[in-house]
Amino acid sequence: MSLFTPDSGLLFWMIVSFGIVFAILSKYGFPIIVKAIEQRKAYIDNSLEAARQANEQLANIQAEGARILAEAKERQNKILKEAFAEKEQILEEARQKATAETRLQIEEATRRIQEEKEKAIREVRSEITDLSIAIAEKIIKEKIGRDKEQQQIMNRLLDEVSFCKS
Fold first, then answer.
1. Residue-range definition of the domain harbouring residue 47
2. pTM for the structure as a whole
3. How much is the mean pLDDT over the chain?
4. Radius of gyration from C-alpha coordinates of the chain
5. How many folded domains does the chain comprise?
C-alpha cells in the first residue's frame, strides 16, 4: 500500500519542486503563454473583423451586381424596343416606297396604254378617211363619167375651193 500513500518527505519535496516550477513558470513561462494567447486572440478577432467586412463587401458587391444586372436588362429592353421600332419604320418606308413605285409603274403603263390607244384611234381614223376618200372617189368617178352635169358641178366646186385658198 505504500504505492498509494506517499510519505511525508516525498510529499514535501513534491510540493517544493512544484512551487519552484510554478514560480519559474509564473515569472518566465506564463507571461509568454499569456502573450501568445492574447496575440492569438487578437489575430482571431482581426480575422473575424476582416471576415465580417468581407461579408459586407460581398453583400455590397452582390447588391451592386444585381443593380448592374437590372440596368443591363433595362438597357436591353430599351435597345430591343428601339430596334423593333426601327424595324417597323424601315418596313413602313419600304411599303411606302414599294407603293409609290407600283403607282408610278401603273401610271406609266396607263400612259403607254393611252398613247397606244390614241395612236390606234388615229391610225383607224386615217384608214377610215383613206377608205372614205377612195370610196367617194370611185363613186364620184362613176357618176362624173356618166353625166356632164356632174362634171360641171365638180368644176364649179374646184373653182370655189381654189378661190378659197387664194
1. 8-165
2. 0.41
3. 86
4. 64
5. 1
C-alpha cell at 23: 514560480
Q: Which three cell numbers stand for residue 64?
A: 451592386
1: in domain: no
Which alpha helices (DSSP H) does the chain contain, by range? 8-24, 30-146, 148-165
As a whole number of angstroms, the distance between CA 77 and CA 85 comes to 12
Tell me: the pLDDT tens digits for 106-144? 999 999 999 999 999 888 888 888 877 777 777 767 665
Cβ atoms of 158 and 152 within 8 Å: the answer is no
The contacts of residue 6 (CB under 8 Å, 6+ apart) are: 14
Determine the Cα–Cα distance for residues 16 and 36; give it in Å rounded to an integer. 28
Q: Which residue shows C-alpha cell 519552484? A: 20
Are the C-beta atoms of 144 and 151 separated by less than 8 Å?
Answer: yes
What are the residues whose beta carbons fall under 8 Å from the beta carbon of 14, sequence distance 6 or more?
6
Q: pLDDT band at 147, cuts 50/70/90?
A: low
Residue with cell 377612195: 134
Contact 156, 144 (CB under 8 A): no
Residue 124 lies in a domain: yes
